Amino acid sequence: MLIGLRRRGDGPAQERHAGESLTEQLDLVPANIRTILEPAGTTVDNIVRVTSYLTDPAHAELNGQARTAALGGRVVPTTAIVVQTLSPDWLVEVEVVAAG
């Protein structure tokens, strides 16, 4: 799962925390995805499925816009699920499947 986390501090013991707003978290998710995919020799072009976990159904439209932008307009099978079990700081969590 990928969330809109950013690092706070320097060095290996950096604290991770969620972006403060939905927009900030959605801006951070693509960078986190690229960071995870790169060592495997893949990119966002290899993503074949996306599942988003949202804490509020009102986040669906902005989440969809961010997903479309992150994938360069490419359409992949997508599911959005509204949940209430995430950390209170996490407004969105994203799971991707990439095939290389």
Structure description:
With 100 residues, the protein is an alpha+beta fold. Helices cover 27% and strands 30% of the residues. It is built from 2 helices and 6 strands. The protein has a 4-stranded mixed sheet, covered by helices on one side. A two-stranded antiparallel sheet has the order 2-3. Strand 4, helix 2 (60-70) and strand 5 form a beta-alpha-beta unit. The longest helix has 16 residues, at 22-37.
Q: Layout of SSEs?
A:
Blueprint: E1 2-3, E2 5-8, E3 15-18, H1 22-37, E4 47-54, H2 60-70, E5 78-82, E6 92-98
Parallel strand pairs: 4-5
Antiparallel strand pairs: 1-6, 2-3, 4-6
Helix pairs in contact: 1-2
Strand order of the largest sheet: 1-6-4-5
The counted number of beta strands is: 6
Helix proportion of residues, in percent?
25-40%
Specify the number of helices.
Answer: 2
**What's the story with the biggest beta sheet?**
4 strands, mixed
- Quaternary organization: single chain
Overall morphology: globular
Poorly predicted regions: none
Mean pLDDT: 84
Distance between the termini: 18 Å
User: Structural class of the secondary elements?
Assistant: alpha+beta
Estimate the strand proportion: 25-35%
What Rg, in angstroms, do the CA atoms define?
Answer: 13 Å
N-to-C order of helices and strands: EEEHEHEE
How would you briefly describe this protein structure?
With 100 residues, the protein is an alpha+beta fold.
